[in-house]
């Protein structure tokens, strides 16, 4: 398959024939009010890197075409299947209709969370990440099947949303049948 470098991505248009060659992983990402456009752009880039099936941008999450999303994503926003939904409930409802056995997992520090190292993903899978300051809303957490969190060993109590998602996604793809 022909992969594009950063310069080629920035100047290319979406090529559905090239996209059809990419086997998408049964993983969906849901952004619950992620506000930083550079985080959103980086999440697009991450979704492309891991061949995520679809990215949902929900609530106050900014959407393309935004110049900062375009810059941070190196235009991968053109290549990633994404949709905007007014709220996470709509995204989850759509996913549950399309994928009845989908596991909905929030990545959040919470009293009901389990350490990510004990998490064994099932597919299809939707991972939810939240707002940089307030995390995932209580209503969204209530819609989740599980809540997982990354351990924090230093003085800081959290990681950047895109960094956290990157760690979780890369470890999650290890469990895909073709990677075992």
UniProtKB/TrEMBL annotation:
GO terms for cellular component: cytosol. GO terms for biological process: methylation; RNA processing. It comes from the Bacteria. SUPFAM superfamilies: alpha/beta knot. Gene3D superfamilies: 3.40.1280.10. Keywords: Methyltransferase, Transferase. InterPro entries: Alpha/beta_knot_MTases, rRNA_MeTrfase_TrmH, SpoU_MeTrfase, tRNA_m1G_MTases_N. Pfam families: SpoU_methylase. Residues 27-170 form the tRNA/rRNA methyltransferase SpoU type domain. One of its GO terms (molecular function) is RNA binding. This is tRNA/rRNA methyltransferase SpoU type domain-containing protein. It comes from Candidatus Gottesmanbacteria bacterium RIFCSPLOWO2_01_FULL_42_22.
